[in-house]
# Entry
Amino acid sequence: QKEVEQNSGPLSVPEGAIASLNCTYSDRGSQSFFWYRQYSGKSPELIMFIYSNGDKEDGRFTAQLNKASQYVSLLIRDSQPSDSATYLCAVRKDTGTASKLTFGTGTRLQVTL
Amino acid sequence: GAVVSQHPSWVICKSGTSVKIECRSLDFQATTMFWYRQFPKQSLMLMATSNEGSKATYEQGVEKDKFLINHASLTLSTLTVTSAHPEDSSFYICSAHPGFPYGYTFGSGTRLTVV
# Structure
């Protein structure tokens, strides 16, 4: 079982729709969860992170965490063509800035006109 | 704030030569930096964790003697790919965590091509 699992996609959504990206993790002791966006040939950009169960909203993005189900998701409202990218879920087991991240393989999102 | 600068952006080198990649934290001090490698259409794979003033911690399967890491100051870590071969061609990315409220910040990456 992979430590962090994501559906590779591509996930195709029409412009203006809600895109839902999912991620599961295997280590129940994981502390914090990060979502990154990566355009082809570029390095990852942080979208948001979440530590506590529930929802966290930032503009058009909402992260949802359910530690009991070991599940974290990212919702993108009013999807735009510029949102087309690969979305990486990352998990940190320990606290502190010296703790490493474990990445999923990413989900490719395509927003169609 | 929370910017990580990485140089060079791309480099082409001949097989057998060495290449140094620099990663700097511009507006914060980073006692720890992370080095990743990413092959086309694959996810990021952590190679090593760089610790200021001490030895780096390498992930399983990463050759310490081939990928030399030096973290001599709180703002600079370097990765040297020694005796590079075509199979080392990849996208190398560094990262650091500035502390709350920031998340892990990535450099712009270095695309290495060994010919």
Summary: Chain A touches chain B through 21 residues (CB under 8 Å). The two ends of chain A are 37 Å apart (CA to CA).
